[in-house]
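Might I ask for a little of your time on a matter of protein folding? Here, with my thanks, is the record as I have it:
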Amino acid sequence: MLGYDAAHWHAVLNDLPAALLLVAVLFDVAAAITKRESLMWAAIWTLWAGVIGGWAAVVAGKVASNTIDHGAAIHEIMEKHENMALLTMALFTVVLAWRLIRRFQMPAQELAFTRMLSIVGLLGLVWTGVLGGRLMFQHAAGIPSRVLQSELQNREAGHEHQPGEEHDHAATDSTKTDTTKTTAPHTHPPGSPPHSH
């Protein structure tokens, strides 16, 4: 749909639910501190949206895991990422269901316990994101092998800067005539092939 495959949909769907779940926990903690009912309702509605969106991201991720090019290293991290996502979403779903079933008539200890579960869920959410980041930025998961090979060839070919595209430390008129002043040398990241400017 819209030219997107499952890996792209997973990338589209996973950020907003994570933000909503974080905000839901913050609203809930703020409600506990301030005793404001409006914050409690904000936490519930935000939790609702985060749980629905989170499960959509999990489903897209599960479909993507069966379709992307990958080897053993990606597979191992992907399994951990998937398991952590399932555990995290199950935890937030339990918190939401618990509060809806009890109709918000919970004693203070029970309410504190659900808040503690939400905070544990938040830690799980962060770890899920860390694993997802490793998949993308350390292993290029979701990028087809042919695209990755083409990009590697492009990087190896190097590049040239256009006139006037020099970096901020280009010599000014005063440094061009004064030979005692030096300009910082132009450098490229390690591994860049030699090229002319």
